[in-house]
Amino acid sequence: MSSLRAVVETLVPDQDGFAVEAPLEWSQGRTLYGGITAALAYEAVRRAHDELPPLRSAQFTFVGPASGRLRFASSLLRRGRSSTLIGADCLSEEGTAARALFVFGAARESKVTHNFLPMPKVAAPSELGSFRKEGAAAPRGFWNNFETRLASGARLFDPTAERPEFTTWTRFLDTGGADPTTALLAIADCLPPAAMVLFPQPAPISTMTWTVDVAHVPRSFDGWHLLWVSSEQASEGYSLQNMAMWSESGELIATGRQTVAIFA
Predict the structure, then answer these.
(1) What whole-number distance in Å separates Cα of residue 50 and Cα of residue 236?
(2) Which of 23, 86, 239, 248 pairs as cysteine with 195 (C-beta 3.0–4.6 A)?
(3) Residue 65's pLDDT is what?
(4) Rounded distance, CA 28 to CA 260, Å?
(5) Does residue 84 contact residue 78 with C-beta atoms inside 8 Å?
(6) What CATH fold (topology level) applies to the domain 4-107+124-262?
(7) Which residues of 19-35 are buried (b: 16+ CB within 10 A; e: fewer)?
(8) In this predicted model, what pLDDT tens digit does every residue of 10-35 receive, in sequence order?
(9) What is the pTM of this model?
(10) Which long-range contacts (CB under 8 A, 24 or more apart) does 128-137 make?
């Protein structure tokens, strides 16, 4: 498998944006999985717009399959004294594959500091078993770019589970020294939807929207990170879920929210 950085570096200038051949090793069925689509969109934005402050939030709507040759176009919506807002589209030969809004903001002095989302107390990765099949036993696709260890909660396809929720230690097999914010977006969406815990059997899913709010960007994503995902409600073929990610030292990295279409 190619490193994350090697995949990102295949993004090349194209007219007023950037283009890339969708990397099959980061696919999920007939489309790229959402995290790598988001990461490529961010890379295109940061290359097209100079002197951006740190990323604070991003919203993604996954419109259609991201496959084949993809082009990323972006536009500056507003640049203020401390914040910058940029819109971006991922376009395939079939039309719009994804639409994104990136919110950047410079750090400011503030008298308000708190954190009421501490990292759950779980065993270390070395003490835990794999969450999903890995290596030669794993199906082809994006999952082979990660290692995971189930830290708490249920496994997939267990209708007897108390609730659709799980926490895993997760790490890249090889970031290749990719930009940390790019890596954050690529890993933050790598877990299956929590609603799949209560699936009676495997069935298709499709993430429709994803919001990720960034609390802290580590200098590197080479180590383990704790990811939590919990489905709060599911009905009429859709699941609403919350997500969060911490560093191995316990620092909150990001929170997220998704709407997922489920076909079970």
Answers:
(1) 44
(2) 239
(3) 95
(4) 15
(5) yes
(6) Porin (2.40.160)
(7) bbebbeebbbeebbbbb
(8) 999 999 999 999 999 999 888 999 99
(9) 0.95
(10) 128/169, 131/155, 131/166, 131/168, 132/156
Counting DSSP H helices and E strands in the chain, the numbers are 3, 14
Instruction: Choose among 220, 229, 222: nearest CA to 168.
Output: 229
Token pair belonging to 234:
């599911």
The alpha carbon torsion through 217, 76, 210, 179 (nearest 10 deg) reads: -30
Calpha distance 262→254 (Å, rounded): 24
Strand-strand pairing, 31-32 and 83-92: unpaired
DSSP string, 36-53: HHHHHHHHHHHHHSSS--
Residue type, 81: R
At 197-239, the pLDDT tens digits run 999 999 999 999 999 999 999 999 999 999 999 999 999 999 9
Cβ atoms 190, 184 nearer than 8 A? no
Average pLDDT over residues 103-115: 95
pLDDT band at 143 (very low <50, low <70, confident <90, very high): confident
Q: How far apart are CA 208 and CA 188, in angstroms?
A: 15
Q: The tokens 């191995």 sit on which residue?
A: 248
Q: How far apart are CA 162 and CA 67, in angstroms?
A: 37
97 pLDDT more than 70: yes
- Taking the C-alpha atoms of residue 182 and residue 238, their distance in angstroms, rounded to an integer, is 28
Read off φ and ψ for residue 114, nearest 5 degrees.
Answer: -160, 165
195, 164 contact by CB (below 8 A): yes
3-state secondary structure of 214: strand
